[in-house]
């Protein structure tokens, strides 16, 4: 059993009288410890796929299977829980909570699940140290550089020890040096912590860190290498 | 609470401004309630202080002392009723008094009561009323500030009557005026000096206060005949201007509270809308609606609580600098009551925002920079 499977997923939108097919019979698999990239032009359906895998969007047909469990069978409330426990989202730099310091950004994830234990505190500090942020624990997002913010977002995604890591353009708005660092960090953490990761990116230079590369074009996903 | 407090700490200016609005609203509410309370005390304190359950008036007087004239002889008939435990005569008049050495005349209310009856107020200085000192009066303490003292002989305007202060009482005002309590006979001598002013009723009084916890007022009025029976609160509402004054203040308070509910709701609504993106992010990383709801409501609660407490402190500080004779009377029970009402209203108004939160789509978190 693979960690993450997408089976024959199709997503269509009605726009006026015409129907737009954002995802056309997409299938893919990612195993634990693997990081795969999805590249493709804007509007090709990459984000739609990521949203569907992250349980933010209901596909028109097909399934997402995480650890053998089909997520379309989950109810609204269970979906929030599923996102909390099984999915780690690495969002773009702007998506940290502006009034929480670096450590609290991570602890927030635990707060959502209930109480924060001292083991959680230790784990958060460990994660941040892994990502070279041990000196920035009490900094707020506006006091960090773009690269540092993105590393906090990465740490946050790993905080809930989820099965799947989804990265949405993690290198957007970073210069190439920082971009390489960030992707390398994601890749390292994915391997070390045995996660199944999907990274949506525009930036073809980042693909060396990925195990496989899929190309998305007009809703059709093809394996590239 | 975690998010709520962290956010307040981070955006001190924004939240202190919102708190300031709540402080001002609370402040105004408490001051208005103090004024309302002060005015109603001034208007009818002596009636509120009566240790009576009911008051008996002349039929057709509409529970107003000024329109009611009944004979004191009714007292016997009233006392004979089994429900009645005790009764006491009561008369009221407006007058102006002066004494030698004081230029200005002072407006007072002259209330006639029977010495030793249950409606005689507690004397805080000097002696009680005495049947044998016919011109003895108990004066409200505020007259001390105007230069009156025990033993003073005071002249009643438009008459030849000279009264003598035998004691002081406190918190006794009637129709916005300080009260002089005299014997019923002395009161009659002033009020009905003109022949025929008593409508030809012998031993006339304005009303009879009765102590009767289980009285059927309508039945009772019919049994005695020629009277109407009002509860004490009806009697207070019958005081001239009492309802109008109270109504004005209550209307202002109701409007204030309603407006503040809107203002607070709008402020938090705008704040919430500004944070739509953040809530989207939180939902994307797994926050349930209830988690965000708790954060918002607890934040509103903390801000309102602080605002209201500061408002209370400010109110008590302002009360210190108000002029002495301003009718301002803060009732701690009312302060607590209005404080809770404001708190409840702000928390309820925050639920408008909560509805907004449940509508936030976590997909907004994937909004692109490119």
UniProtKB/TrEMBL annotation, chain A:
SMART domains: AAA (SM00382). It comes from the Bacteria. Keywords: ATP-binding, Nucleotide-binding, Transport. CDD domains: ABC_MJ0796_LolCDE_FtsE. GO terms for molecular function: ATP binding; ATP hydrolysis activity; transmembrane transporter activity. Transmembrane segments: none annotated. Residues 4-225 form the ABC transporter domain. Coiled coil: none annotated. The keyword ATP-binding applies. It holds the Pfam family ABC_tran. GO terms for cellular component: membrane protein complex. PANTHER family: CELL DIVISION ATP-BINDING PROTEIN FTSE, LIPOPROTEIN-RELEASING SYSTEM ATP-BINDING PROTEIN LOLD. Belongs to the ABC transporter superfamily. This is ABC transporter ATP-binding protein. It comes from Lysinibacillus mangiferihumi.
TrEMBL record, chain B:
The keyword rRNA-binding does not apply. The keyword Transport applies. Keywords: Cell membrane, Membrane, Transmembrane, Transmembrane helix, Transport. It is found in: Cell membrane. It comes from the Bacteria. GO terms for cellular component: plasma membrane. InterPro entries: ABC-4/HrtB_transporter, ABC3_permease_C. Residues 251-362 form the ABC3 transporter permease C-terminal domain. It is a multi-pass membrane protein. The chain crosses the membrane at residues 249-271, 291-322, 334-354. Part of the ABC transporter complex hrt involved in hemin import. Responsible for the translocation of the substrate across the membrane. The complex is composed of two ATP-binding proteins (HrtA), two transmembrane proteins (HrtB) and a solute-binding protein. Belongs to the ABC-4 integral membrane protein family. HrtB subfamily. PANTHER family: ABC TRANSPORTER, MEMBRANE PROTEIN, HEMIN TRANSPORT SYSTEM PERMEASE PROTEIN HRTB-RELATED. This is Putative hemin transport system permease protein HrtB.
